[in-house]
Amino acid sequence: MFFERPESGERAILVHIDFYSESEPESPRELEELALSAGADPVAFLTGSRSDPSPKFFLGKGKVAELAEMVRLYEAELVIFNHSLSPAQERNLEREIQCRVLDRTGLILDIFAQRARTHEGKLQVELAQLEHMSTRLVRGWTHLERQKGGIGLRGPGETQLETDRRLLRVRLKSILKRLDKVRKQRDQGRRARVRASVPTVSLVGYTNAGKSTLFNSLTASDVYAADQLFATLDPTLRKIQLDDAGAAILADTVGFIRHLPHKLVEAFRATLQETCEATLLLHVIDSYDEERQLHIEQVNDVLTEIGADDVPTLLVYNKVDLLEQVEPRIDRDDEGVPIRVWLSAQTGAGTDLLLQAINERLSDDVFESELKLTPSEGQFRAQLYAANAILSESVDDEGQMHLKVRIQRKDFRQLLSRLQIPFERYLSETVDYV
């Protein structure tokens, strides 16, 4: 049950009001980008300021009259508010200005409906849309009353509105059941990766920060990437190979935005679970954006809301090719641990540094040593080769093999356990590290 959209862009008037009581006002520029991403054709911008929203129209009477005049002047088909409106405010405004009204939440939902490609993504968007629409059904059915008196005119005893609400509840129940199945399938995939000790690296960040472009650069994939808000909606997973940490899963996820509608956060809980259970988060930041610090805070707020604020994070400052006198580099803390990487996903400059930083963050517990094996321990040697853990090998006059080994400590412990070799033989404090 997606919104119907015309083939060409709708002529839209954008409305942004500053409220004195707002601590984090919305961005007018971001509203325009959202409207363009949805396929609208903004023809005018109405701005103003108030102490508080009007309960009836959200705007004052003077602004409502001004908006109605703009609708007639520009022959607008749609009015988009950069705020959340109540169903009553939407209905009152539409009746007053004789034009369709859409609030910020409805606009984001429409963009998501256009971007959804997978079955799961479409279900999640539809769930959020139906929950948003459930309180707005009344305006479409006020003329269809099915309760009538008289012989032969008695209907089923419910209005068309009540019928629609009942059907909507049935559909919501069906979607929730199917999404629950999707969640279980995702959980099984995550458990399998945990059993195989494969770390997951999840890309997060403000929408249009360049996550998908970076994802394509790191994995040689062709995920859809565009200079528009919410170009990526469906999560994509790809395997990457790191020097020391071995194989890892890189996940590209939906971008965040300030005041992301709670309905969307709930609907995309299954998708965002990949972020919550990741081994490492790559917080991609548009370094060229003037509001980058505000966007960082907004992303951190969403991470807190979904319970991912305690996952280790590496900051990735993207688009350095647009900055003057800034070269790709790795910033480290006092202990030498990578905390920030500066790069350009578009040109590829610095992506090798990012892989190096990811490798360091994931391989902070590496077993590196020289092992001496007898000819009878050939199976152990073969397993080390299979794990790609042997750096070099030599044989002495007595036929003993000297192996220089580098492997993740947890993988080495699993290997020893499989072969029933006591841990103390190699993982004691007396081992000489190279």
TrEMBL record:
Keyword presence, Cytoplasm: yes
Pfam families named among the record's database cross-references: GTP-bdg_M, GTP-bdg_N, HflX_C, MMR_HSR1
SUPFAM superfamilies: P-loop containing nucleoside triphosphate hydrolases (SSF52540)
Single GO molecular function: metal ion binding
CDD domains, A to Z: HflX
Keywords on record: Cytoplasm, GTP-binding, Magnesium, Metal-binding, Nucleotide-binding
UniProt-annotated binding residues for Mg(2+): 212, 232
GO cellular component: cytoplasm
Domain Hflx-type G stretches: 199-366
Cross-referenced PROSITE patterns: G_HFLX (PS51705)
Compartments, record wording: Cytoplasm
Stored InterPro entries: G_HFLX_dom, GTP-bd, GTP-bd_M, GTPase_HflX, GTPase_HflX_N, GTPase_HflX_N_sf, HflX_C, P-loop_NTPase
Cofactor list: Mg(2+)
Binding residue positions for GTP: 205-212, 230-234, 252-255, 318-321, 344-346
Quaternary structure, from the entry: Monomer. Associates with the 50S ribosomal subunit.
Family listed: Belongs to the TRAFAC class OBG-HflX-like GTPase superfamily. HflX GTPase family.
Reported function: GTPase that associates with the 50S ribosomal subunit and may have a role during protein synthesis or ribosome biogenesis.
Name of the featured protein: GTPase HflX
Species, as recorded: Nitrincola nitratireducens
